[in-house]
Amino acid sequence: MTISTHVAIFITDYSEFCADKHGTFAELSAKLLKNSGLQEEIRCYDVIRSQFPTDDELKDIKAIWITGSRSDAFADEPWILNLKTFLQDKVLSREDIRLVGICFGHQIIARSL
């Protein structure tokens, strides 16, 4: 049995409009997780640029946090379709990976289901 070693944050927006003052959505998410007591390592994956965990990395993921985005989760932009396919093919059938979606993230999970 593999022990899950990290939490993945999927970046779905660069949040330039608030990053200077508050940080990016990924930074805010990581801060929230750490302030809530998370001790595991956090790794960010830029799914807009098709950066997804490898199959080997997936074996070590405890949870995936999908950030909010200004994008429409039901749009057919290539990166959104790639994210949907990744969730369908690699994540949703797994019982050992917890999945959290914030706004856009929740909607893309629903679409993937």
Descriptive notes:
This protein is of the alpha/beta class. Helices cover about 40% and strands about 20% of the residues. Strands 2-1-3-4 form a 4-stranded parallel sheet. The longest helix is centred in the C-terminal third of the chain and has 14 residues, at about 80-90. The N and C termini lie far apart (about 25 Å). The model has no long low-confidence stretch (mean pLDDT about 90).
Task: Summarize the entry for a quick read.
This protein is α/β, with parallel strands linked by helices and 113 residues long. The chain is built from five helices and four strands; from the N terminus they run E-H-H-E-H-E-H-E-H.
* Number of distinct helices: 5
The average pLDDT is 92
Number of β-strand runs = 4
List the helices and strands in order. EHHEHEHEH
Class by SSE composition: alpha/beta
How can the largest sheet be summarized? 4 strands, parallel
Proportion of strand residues: 15-25%
The proportion of residues forming helix, as a percent range, comes to 25-40%
Globally, the shape reads globular
